[in-house]
Amino acid sequence: MKNNYSIGVLLFAILLFPAFCHAAGWDTLSVPRLKYDGGGDWYTGPTSMINLMKEVNRRLKLLTQAENIAVSISDPELFRYPMLYLTGHGHVKIKDQDINTLANYLNNGGFLWVNDSYGIDKYIRREIKRLYPDRDPVQLPGNHPIFNGAYEFKDGLPKIHEHDNKPPAAFALYDKGRMKILYTYESDIGDGLEDAGIHKVDTPQIREEAMKMAINIVVFAMMQ
Fold first, then answer.
1. Residue 195 gets which letter from DSSP?
2. How confident is the model at residue 224 (pLDDT cuts 50, 70, 90)?
3. CATH code where residue 127 lies
4. Spatial separation of the C-alpha atoms in residues 40 and 91, rounded to whole Å
5. pTM
6. 2 occurs within a structural domain
7. CB 218 within 8 A of CB 52
């Protein structure tokens, strides 16, 4: 994987991306984590989005709100955020009365990144099916643009944590030609974004790979 920006991507990251976000009305970007029911720990990894927003600010020169923000689907503030982050271990359940609200958020330009911190696979697939009964997530190939944005990942989604020693995979839910949900599985990008020392096995190199991939996700979500 390349460690440096290409000339074109550098110009995009430093000049075009902030200008695009400003034109879209996102002068200050924040990515809140999404609360859910079912007993899963939606709050896990409290430093991950803080660190991501700090690096988006530093590397892409975009004004960000580097705070650990959380919103519920019923929160009136939900629709002011262009992107949401969902993570955790184990059971994920969206309330029946919130399904239509979340689908409405996604259908009106919102983007949901689901990070499998371990054990949410069967639950999140069930919830995605409730949101879009006639759609199924598709696995992204290694040459998808999300892996070649600000940083290049020739082999697709990087492996950050071992979990069950399965290969990492990125799944996307498309509707009307737009990616609305990204589900990163068997990788745990979120853990790699946390403060150094929280996960002893995460070397600086591994944490940098996680950060680069997360920045790619943010860029893709905002620009598609």
1. P
2. confident
3. 3.40.50.12140
4. 5
5. 0.90
6. no
7. yes
